[in-house]
Amino acid sequence: MLGAKKQLELITGIDIGSTAVRVSVGQILFQGKEKSDLQIIGAIEVPSEGMAKGTIDSIEECVSSVSNALEKVEHLIGVPIEHAWVGISGAHIKTEESKGVIAVAKSDGEISAEDVERAMEAARSIATPLNYEILHVLPRSFAVDGQTGIRDPIGMTGIRMEVDTKIIQGVTQQIKNLTKAVYRTGIDIDDLVFSILAAGDSVITPRQKELGVAVVNIGGSTTSLVVYEEGDIIHTAVLPIGSIHVTNDLAIGLRCPIEVAEKVKVECGHCVAKDFTRKEKIDLAALGTELSEEVELKYLAEIIGARMEEILEKVDAEFIKIGRSGLLPAGVVFVGGGAKISGLVDLAKEKLRLPASLGYPLNLSSATDKINDLSFVTAIGLVKWGATLHSGGRQKGRKSKSVEQVSGRVKDWFKALIP
Question: Helix, strand, coil proportions of the chain in percent (round to 5)?
């Protein structure tokens, strides 16, 4: 069994969050020449240290957490991890529009993949803000000799081609800190991927992307979202609020230790107070308090619901910015640990005035039940992102073009620092 695994190319995704580090490992199983199937063979979660609000505040502690997670997953699958796709998030991520214009290279005017790459490079040459690096260049639509709205121009004929893109950028220092932390664990980075993009790609269908859909990842201390329409990304955002704020509210409201508040949230958490009567109660002693104290479930739901409503209001504010409030036919798909709180879907339908559901990875087989854990959607999404690029190339430029320059340059620089 081990010998067979060593012959296979393993794809690893590392999601370094504020509350946990999650690592998932997948392999591509080929069935004939064309068909292939991605199987998740291992997934591990360990508590995160050295991270706050999606950014590193202690490299040493972060390295320790990631190393611990990698050791556990290597023990689980029996094969050493040598490289991985790493998710990056945080409130420092920002997006910007850009346009690239080129002249078609061939004399007969036929547009090739190289022309698309040149157009993407032209779009990349915008003046980035001080201390920012480009993470992704996402093509939205192409125009050839004035014909707009073209999805894939390869093979068409023209003289001048334009591409409208969305540029995703991150603070250089944060990118370097994350890269350094991962390299110090002894593995290579295939690429850095904006986490919500990987999560979004793994849980929604092309049909949903075409109609208009949002994916919202409620993490520990941040909530990130991506909005798709007509198959393209039209908006992304990272909000500095997450499920850890629910825990803090419970600790204050119940006057109990933070550990007990976390247990209350996980085991008894609910968003909608009207689902309970005043007679339904729990004893906090069963969840870790020293003294017996009965608390109404309705009161807990009021505390949790107030914070979850605030998160949803901030999500709706992002929809309002782009004129999509209440106007996404395929609705909102929730992922992340914070999405496990019972009643979220019903609350979201009411507050966002949209269809709502929980998102689970699509078109995957798995040997682990973690594939059905909302907390692991990003880590599994990173594996799927890597598998797509590994098996199908960049799909004629439709996939995001990540900055190999950042990864390569930073990799060489930080490897020189490792003793």
Answer: 40, 30, 30
Q: Which CATH number fits domain 237-357: 3.90.220.20, 3.40.630.30, 3.40.50.2000, 3.30.420.40?
A: 3.30.420.40
Tokens of 93: 């991520």
User: Which CATH class name applies to 2-90+173-202+361-410?
Assistant: alpha beta
Residue ranges per structural domain of the chain: 2-90+173-202+361-410, 94-171, 237-357
3-state per-residue secondary structure call for 285-323: HHHCCCCCCEEEHHHHHHHHHHHHHHHHHHHHHHHHHCC
Where residue 70 falls (left for φ over 0; alpha for ψ -120 to 50; beta otherwise) is alpha
Q: Are 25 and 72 in contact (CB under 8 A)?
A: no
Give which of 171, 135, 15 is closest to 84, Cα–Cα.
15
Q: Are 71 and 177 within 8 A, CB to CB?
A: no
Please tell me if the domain spanning 2-90+173-202+361-410 has the same topology as the one spanning 94-171: no
Q: Which residues sit opposite 188 in a β-bridge?
A: 83
Distance CA 241, CA 297 (A): 24
Tens place of pLDDT per residue across the chain (419 aa): 344 433 457 899 999 998 999 999 998 876 655 556 788 999 999 999 988 877 888 999 999 999 999 999 999 999 999 999 999 998 889 888 899 999 998 888 899 999 999 999 999 888 778 899 999 998 888 999 989 888 889 999 999 999 999 999 999 999 999 999 999 999 999 999 999 999 999 999 999 999 999 999 999 889 999 999 988 899 999 999 999 999 999 999 999 999 999 999 999 889 998 988 888 888 888 888 888 888 999 999 999 999 999 999 999 999 999 999 999 999 999 999 999 999 999 999 999 999 999 999 988 888 778 888 999 999 999 999 999 887 654 433 333 434 444 445 445 555 555 54
> β-strands 132-144, 10-16: how paired?
unpaired
Q: Six-digit token pair at 391?
A: 């098996």
d(C-alpha 197, C-alpha 148), whole Å: 25
> Which residues does residue 83 pair with via DSSP β-bridges, in sequence order?
188
Q: What is the DSSP letter of 373?
A: -
CATH class, domain 94-171, is alpha beta
Task: Report how far residue 346's alpha carbon sits from residue 239's, in angstroms, rounded to the nearest whole number.
Answer: 22
Q: Which of 246, 208, 245, 250 is nearest to 229 (CA)?
A: 208
